[in-house]
Amino acid sequence: MGYPLAKILRSQLERKIHAYEPMPVLDAREFAWAKRVESLYPEIRKEVETLLKDVEKIQNFNDVLPGQRALKQDAMWKSYFLYALKKEITPNCAACPNTLSAIKEIPGVINAFFSILKPGVEIPPHRGPYAGIMRYHLGVIIPKGDVGIRVDKTVYRWEEGKSLFFDDSFDHEAWNRTDSIRVILFVDIERELPTYLGILNRILINIFSLSKSARYAQKKITNSVT
Question: Is the C-alpha dihedral spanning 212, 213, 214, 219 positive or negative?
Answer without folding.
Answer: positive
